[in-house]
Amino acid sequence: MTVPNIELNDGNAIPQLGFGVFKVDPDRTEELVLEALKVGYRHIDTAAIYGNEEGVGRAIANSGIPREELFITTKLWNDRQTDAAAALDESLEKLGLDYVDLYLVHWPCPENDTYVEAWKQLIGLKKAGKAKSIGVSNFELEHLEKLETHTEETPVVNQVELHPYLQRWRELDAFRAHKVQIEAWGPLGQGKTDLFELPEITEPAEKYGVSPAQVIIRWHLQNGVIVFPKSENPERLAQNFDVFGFALDESEMAAITDLDLGEEGRGGTHPKEMNY
Ligand code: NAD
């Protein structure tokens, strides 16, 4: 199975499908990431705040996979926005790496008003070779525009909550117009919704002989979105990677797009309300 690459605005490329480790217990992280690497995943999404970078690092070290074949993302937590160089050094130490492929400002925290400073520091970290690419997460358009006003560098991605119940295409297309690729977090609704039971999802699942989760992942991929579903179950983790043997047709794609609930579909915190 070959995962397509998406080209980033700095010339680097990211595997479109990866494995996310939010809420994966630090004690199980090594085992699960090793399992994911065995299945074929090469893109891992972690963050300093997840507390499991060491487990990701042990899995990388024990996998025997050459570093250049892996794409590792981690994120700068909110209380380190004015201290990003030291924060990335700590993450690199835990990951056992000299560089990450992608370093993200985790949330803008607009009330703190330090995200432009954080972004300037990330630009320095990219120049120093400690992050091959830099991007943001949970940014609204106004936050992106502020970065562009104050610096010369545009983030390569914006990682946002995105699933059939929360889509915001108008805003996401505006990011794409700025050459910012979209990464989906909570792509399956974090397993907290009834998405897996809706006919718009179960009917194509039955037709193609796949699971509802595979249909949703396929919908993201066909929308050109970068996606890294999380599962702590080895069978599901393998299933989530097995999404290149079928394709949704136009009407099946449209039916899922019609499930959008707008703001009501948001399961996590609104970026404007996260300030700690
Ligand atoms: P997700 O949408 O990937 O949902 C994961 C849950 O879906 C699992 O715990 C399980 O309950 C269910 N699931 C997964 N595969 C399944 C399958 N095949 N069949 C049935 N159920 C299945 O949620 P997530 O983990 O929150 O998001 C994915 C990744 O996004 C995270 O691991 C993390 O890397 C990233 N993330 C980033 C932010 C951010 O603020 N930047 C926030 C949350 C998550």
UniProtKB/TrEMBL annotation:
Pfam families: Aldo_ket_red. InterPro entries: AKR, Aldo/ket_reductase_CS, NAD(P)_OxRdtase_dom_sf, NADP_OxRdtase_dom. Keywords: NADP, Oxidoreductase. Residues 23-259 form the NADP-dependent oxidoreductase domain. The keyword NADP applies. Its EC number is 1.1.1.274. The record marks 75 as: Lowers pKa of active site Tyr. The active site is at residue 50. GO terms for molecular function: 2,5-didehydrogluconate reductase activity. SUPFAM superfamilies: NAD(P)-linked oxidoreductase. The keyword Magnesium does not apply. It comes from the Bacteria. Substrate binds at residue 106. PANTHER family: 2,5-DIKETO-D-GLUCONIC ACID REDUCTASE, NADP-DEPENDENT OXIDOREDUCTASE DOMAIN-CONTAINING PROTEIN. Belongs to the aldo/keto reductase family. This is Aldo/keto reductase.
